[in-house]
Backbone:
């Protein structure tokens, strides 16, 4: 039994090291993306000679990668030269989502091990998982509203399905702040209060 517990804790420790390494790798990759964004912006705004080797490389290799972002910016009325900066913003959001997802999985793994060691506390773990999934769904729902993504898209539809039961009643009670719907924030606060009340 002792060896099984040590094995489980070893798995959790290994996973935590993996997440730490992933966080470091994403940080270095983010620095590289930022450097490339600065150079690409300089090429697009003619701060770098458009005929030299660096400019030709960026027009041939980097600009095609930014084409989807550039099209979105142009449709929204922005200028194509800002595509590189929006790519940095998109990378930061993606990196945060990746790290959050892996930390979420790590929390579930840790709680699953804790549940096997103290089965009478299993209800606490299940409540914690439920609150975590609902919080993640609220985050995805809010994030999708910032971009031209349909609520029926297969990537975000699940977040609307599992949070509508909270959001719809709140929308009838909580007033909007101009164009901003704050009901997801209110729902998140309610979830936190329920979690604190149940789990301490």
Residues:
């Amino acid at each position: 039994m002792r060896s099984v517990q040590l094995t489980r804790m070893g798995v959790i420790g290994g996973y935590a090291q993996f997440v730490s390494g992933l966080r470091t790798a994403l940080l270095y990759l983010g620095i590289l993306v930022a450097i490339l964004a600065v150079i690409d912006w300089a090429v697009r705004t003619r701060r770098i000679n458009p005929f030299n080797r660096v400019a030709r490389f960026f027009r041939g290799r980097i600009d095609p990668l930014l084409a989807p972002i550039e099209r979105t910016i142009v449709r929204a009325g922005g200028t194509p030269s800002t595509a590189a900066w929006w790519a940095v913003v998109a990378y930061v959001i993606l990196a945060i989502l990746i790290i959050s997802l892996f930390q979420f999985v790590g929390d579930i793994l840790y709680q699953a091990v804790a549940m096997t060691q103290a089965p009478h506390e299993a209800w606490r773990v299940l409540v914690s998982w439920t609150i975590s999934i609902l919080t993640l769904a609220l985050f995805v729902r809010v994030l999708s509203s910032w971009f031209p993504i349909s609520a029926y898209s297969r990537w975000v539809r699940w977040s609307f399905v599992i949070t509508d039961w909270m959001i719809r009643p709140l929308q009838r009670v909580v007033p909007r702040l101009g164009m901003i719907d704050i009901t997801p924030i209110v729902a998140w606060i309610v979830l936190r209060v329920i979690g604190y009340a149940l789990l301490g």
